[in-house]
Design goal:
alpha+beta, MetI-like fold, 6-stranded antiparallel β-sheet
Length: about 450
């Protein structure tokens, strides 16, 4: 009888194990199947095939090239016949009379633009012609009905876009555009032109060797100051890249993050004592404070930014207050939970010496939670440096504002890449700094 019971018991255990294994096996197949069904739903719900079909890869290629290159505009006013050559089409980047790029020549009212590899644009009279190797000569001329286009025989290629109001030709070596009022050629070259000195600077166009020689031993360009000081001043006040303004914008961004984070920590610490169950016996007070923490951190920092900008107006202060509001809720929750996990024995030891409640908190509580508090505050400081960039774009402060302005222009994409690189470097620097401070301060606290 006992043997039969044992066999039955072993059989039931085996069946239970097989059933459990089967359930896990079905679950292992079910989860990927659910994910696959969800991805298929997204594929059709967001019309991925339609998005792919309507994608303009040529525009994407132009945008990417603008990140690492610059374009020079050779512009002719069709009404006056005046020709100007300007980097990025800006007045601050216009070449002065008598000083043009080597690939542009003006002679007897004819403008020749050598785009390289046999591509050449010629402005002559009221019209223009574009020589494209392997295709032929494209002739364009304004008339009373709009733009007249004369092409070689055959089908019109897709890189020529023509209408009565505008003709655009896009080639690997550059772009050409003509309307009734203006003829323009865009020549792309790698690099960030005028990054160090603008065209009106006495140091523009000089080689690295010449600049080094001037900085060390050359005659002074400005008798009132050394050449090295003059170079730094020309770089700092660069009208195209505005390095001084960019540096101040980075400082504003870090300042917003610092003031918001540290202000939130100062406000949240005393409130955390009131929200901790082992320090505040009043349950109603703890409940109210915890709901306040939930509310202020539940509203996103961008929403606080919009609300506070109506009260205080745009500026870095508004961004700092938005960060402070959000982080006060987060710090209040984290600090109160840290306080609820302190060791009572250390507090009782300090209390046995006759210490006051403030002294108990100072010598019995703070040494236990300071490493946790510092770690959390420094982490939030690093994270808020990124958030301050987005907040600054809304409230008009910091590097976020400059980034937004560059994007809105739809032409200064090399500046966009410049600002993005600076933002990434700033975040990396704050990450390294916070990590170093975390190790230094927490180690010091541990030793004490």
């Amino acid at each position: 009888m006992a043997a039969m019971l044992s066999t039955t018991h072993e059989g039931s255990l085996g069946e239970a194990a097989v059933a459990a294994f089967g359930r896990k096996q079905r679950l292992a197949f079910a989860l990927p199947a659910v994910v696959l069904v969800y991805l298929i739903y997204i594929f059709f719900a967001f019309n991925i095939p339609g998005l792919v079909a309507s994608a303009r890869t040529d525009n994407a290629a132009i945008l990417l090239s603008d990140f690492w290159s610059y374009k020079t505009h050779v512009t002719r006013d069709n009404r006056s016949g005046e020709v100007s050559v300007a980097i990025e089409g800006e007045n601050k980047g216009t070449y002065p009379p008598g000083r043009l790029p080597k690939w542009v020549s003006l002679q007897d009212g004819v403008t020749r633009i050598d785009l390289g590899k046999g591509y050449e644009v010629v402005y002559e009279g009221a019209g223009a012609r574009f020589t494209v190797p392997g295709y032929g000569v494209i002739k364009v001329e304004p008339d009373t009905r709009g733009i007249r286009l004369d092409l070689p025989d055959g089908e019109v290629p897709d890189w020529i876009n023509a209408s009565p109001a505008r003709v655009t030709v896009t080639t690997p070596q550059g772009r050409f555009s003509m309307t009734r009022n203006r003829t323009e050629t865009f020549h792309y070259e790698p690099g960030w032109e005028l990054f160090f000195f603008t065209l009106d600077s006495p140091f523009s166009g000089r080689s690295v060797g010449e600049l080094a020689s001037l900085a060390v031993s050359g005659d002074r360009v400005d008798p009132a100051r050394p050449n090295i000081v003059h170079m730094l001043s020309e770089f700092w006040t660069n009208k195209m890249w505005r390095h001084g303004d960019v540096a101040w914008a980075l400082f504003e961004t870090v300042l917003m993050a610092f003031l918001g984070t540290m202000g939130a920590a100062v406000v949240a610490l005393p409130l955390a004592f009131l929200a901790a169950s082992n320090f505040t016996p009043a349950r109603s007070l703890r409940f109210v404070l915890r709901r306040v923490f939930d509310f202020v951190r539940g509203v996103d920092g961008l929403i606080w930014t919009i609300i506070l900008s109506r009260a205080f107006g745009p500026g870095p202060l508004t961004g700092s207050l938005a960060i402070l509001m959000t982080d006060t809720g987060s710090f209040g929750k984290l600090f109160s939970e840290a306080l609820e996990n302190v060791d009572r024995k250390q507090i009782e030891g300090v209390q046995s010496t006759g210490a006051s409640p403030i002294q108990q908190a100072r010598f019995g509580v703070m040494p236990q939670i300071v490493p946790v508090l510092l770690s959390q505050v420094l982490y939030f400081l690093e994270s808020n440096t990124r958030s301050a960039t987005v907040i600054g774009a809304i409230v008009g402060g910091g590097i976020g504002l400059l980034l937004t302005q560059a994007i809105i222009t739809q032409k200064d994409w090399e500046e966009v890449s410049y600002y993005i690189i600076l933002i990434v470097l700033m975040v990396m620097a704050m990450d390294s700094l916070s990590g170093w401070l975390r190790g230094l301060l927490i180690g010091r606290v541990g030793r004490t």
